[in-house]
TrEMBL record:
Transmembrane segments: none annotated. This is TetR family transcriptional regulator. GO terms for molecular function: DNA-binding transcription factor activity; transcription cis-regulatory region binding. It comes from the Bacteria. SUPFAM superfamilies: Homeodomain-like (SSF46689), Tetracyclin repressor-like, C-terminal domain (SSF48498). Keywords: DNA-binding, Transcription, Transcription regulation.
Length: 198
């Protein structure tokens, strides 16, 4: 066999993918596939099919559906957190900006707001970051440590439940508040105060 033919065969062999070789995966590709799926019903099989990889290849990166949803939460929380820090002069606007970022990002991912609104184990790392920043905002408003934590729960529960109901298509009635009205009333009542205090 001539050396030219050997070189041509070697070149063809180098370009031909090996049978059964999985496509290259990364956490970024996996999360991107999940962000396009409906997170209320998505399965590991769905994600593997979207990425055109075997189940075993996907499981080498993500152990189960809960880990997949944790990865999604890390990305979503990263997107919604403002780059600035709240101050005594800006805390209310800072929280309003955060709530609108939550509105836009949670509703942009199919099923994500509904998923977060349902009782379940949240991603501790991602949501602890969100919790910490919101508590800092309420402390900037003058709330004590304890009332800043209570205010976080009121704020987080209120915004997430509104978004979850919106995404699940629940009929809240024709007079259900628009998000901007709901948010305005919510923030005017925060930070939390002890009942009976001025």
């Amino acid at each position: 066999m001539g050396s030219g033919r050997i070189r041509r065969l070697a070149s063809v062999k180098a370009r031909t993918p090996r049978p059964g070789r999985p496509a290259r995966l990364s956490r970024e590709r996996i999360v991107e596939a999940a962000l396009r799926a409906d997170l209320r019903t998505v399965t590991m099989r769905d994600i593997a099919e979207r990425l055109d990889v075997s189940h075993s290849a996907l499981y080498r990166w993500v152990g189960n559906r809960d880990e997949l949803l944790d990865l999604v939460s890390e990305v979503v929380v990263e997107r919604i957190l403002p780059t600035t820090e709240p101050t005594p002069d800006t805390w209310r606007q800072w929280l309003a900006d955060l709530a609108w970022r939550m509105h836009d990002q949670f509703l942009a991912v199919p099923g994500y707001a509904a998923h977060v609104a349902m009782p379940h184990r949240h991603n501790a790392r991602a949501f602890e970051r969100l919790r910490g920043r919101v508590i800092t905002a309420f402390k900037a408003a003058g709330a004590s440590d304890a009332l800043a934590v209570q205010s976080w729960h009121v704020f987080g529960l209120g915004v997430v439940q509104w978004l979850g109901a919106q995404q699940m298509g629940h009929e809240l009635g024709p007079d259900a508040p628009r998000f901007e009205l709901f948010l305005d009333v919510l923030l005017r009542g925060l930070p939390a105060r002890e009942p009976g205090s001025p």
